[in-house]
Amino acid sequence: MRRLFVAIHLALASAGAASAFAADLRSVSERFAVLYDAPSIRAKKVYVVGQDYPVEIVVNLDNWVKVRDVSGELTWIEKKSLSEKRTLIVTVAMADVRQAADEKSALVFQAREGVIFELSEIGSTGWVRVRHRDGQSGYVNSKQVWGL
Predict the structure, then answer these.
(1) Rounded to whole angstroms, how far apart are CA atoms 102 and 61?
(2) Number of structural domains the chain divides into
(3) Residue 49's domain spans which residues?
């Protein structure tokens, strides 16, 4: 039992240390991409994601990449299906996109959970500048999105 406790404690400590490093985040470049349970097109297909869906790279292996998504699930995707483009996904029921990086700033628009933004700029005050695919842009609180 003590070994299990120590193993869990070390794993949690490592996870905390890893969060101090910058994550390697990308987005899906293809219109649709299949995520697999192993690094092979013969592996079980877990689900399909659309273009610009953000993922965090966990492992690089030849032509395959193990990724984590907004739900925390780990899957595999072909490396050719990813781009360097940084995107974010809304994680709250309704995110407010404001004119400036301030809660009191004018509301530009709102976005529902699951909406994807292109990342324009990471601010130092807990806000990020984003752009919606329809062209609207503004600032969203970083606590309302995933992909940073």
Answers:
(1) 42
(2) 2
(3) 23-83
Q: Is residue 50 part of a domain?
A: yes
**Separation between Cα atoms, residue 23 and residue 44, nearest integer Å:** 27
pLDDT single digits (tens) 85-129: 999 999 999 999 999 999 999 999 999 999 999 999 998 889 999
Task: Report the phi/psi class of residue 6: left, alpha or beta, with left for phi > 0 and alpha for psi in -120 to 50.
Answer: alpha
**Are 92 and 79 in the same domain?**
no
Q: What is the CATH number of the domain that holds 50?
A: 2.30.30.40
